[in-house]
Amino acid sequence: MGKDQELDEKNVTEKENEEIQDFGQTTLGEEAAGHRIHLLSIIGEIEGHECLGSNTKATKYEHVLPKLAAIEDDPSIDGLLVIINTVGGDVESGLAIAEMIASLSKPTVSLVLGGSHSIGIPLAVSTNYSYIVPTGTMVMHPVRLTGLVIGAPQTYDYFQQMQDRIVGFISDHCFARKERLEEMMLNTGMLTKDLGTILVGRQAVEEGIINEVGGIREAMARLHQMIEEENEIQ
């Protein structure tokens, strides 16, 4: 191995380590399957137009959106694996990421670890196929806004419009009916001081939101299978 090649490999390794540390992202290359898969982790809180505190784990949409565009444009990347453990966050930013994942032309798989709450639900269903671990949770509740709220009919109309967008996206990308999703959002019998529904593992599958219960092994195997099927079509 020449000196220049060693330097190139070292630079690639350092860049990959920086991506993992700074953005929770890396590209996986499996020699046996011959596929390159990009790993995107969505963790903590989805950050919107205002920066969160330095002590808050956050996924920054201004980092994720350009990366998704680069994945779509990179012929060497065969598929996307999205790892999710989020408490939710900014609705507009979360929907923007979900819409972009859903519009990728390459095979995509999501895996819910820990939790995929609130706006994390559209993110979980935005891929072609979705998994949740047995102990994973999904919390579905109505839209909430922080800060000053003007008590006018237009404000409530805006809330309803935003909620319709979220429910519409979820129902378009999973097997759950819109009416059932709204029913779970407005459930008063589960959370003592709030509206909503908590789904654990298999319950999310039974409701038609997530495709299957499984872990990283199942998610990777499914993604490789989807890539193979895509290559056969081409």
Describe the protein in words:
- It is a single chain.
- The protein has eight helices and nine strands.
- By secondary structure, it is an alpha/beta fold.
- Strand 4, helix 3 and strand 5 form a beta-alpha-beta unit.
- It starts with a helix and ends with a helix.
- 34% of the residues are buried.
- About 4% of the residues have low confidence.
Provide the helix percentage: 40-55%
Q: What string, H for helix and E for strand, traces the elements in order?
A: HEEEHEHEHEEHHEHEH
Please describe the biggest sheet, giving its number of strands, its sense, and whether it closes into a barrel: 7 strands, mixed
Task: Supply the helix-strand structural class.
Answer: alpha/beta
First-residue to last-residue Cα separation? 35 Å
Number of strands: 9
Name the overall outline: globular
Which residues form runs of ≥5 with pLDDT under 50? 9-17
Total helices: the number is 8
Tell me, rounded to a whole number, the average pLDDT.
81
Rg, please? 19 Å
Assess the beta-strand content as a share of residues: 15-25%
Show the helix and strand layout.
Blueprint: H1 3-23, E1 25-30, E2 35-47, E3 58-60, H2 61-73, E4 79-89, H3 91-102, E5 108-116, H4 120-125, E6 129-132, E7 137-140, H5 153-172, H6 178-185, E8 197-200, H7 202-206, E9 212-213, H8 216-233
Parallel strand pairs: 2-3, 2-4, 4-5, 5-6, 6-9
Antiparallel strand pairs: 1-2, 7-8
Helix pairs in contact: 2-3
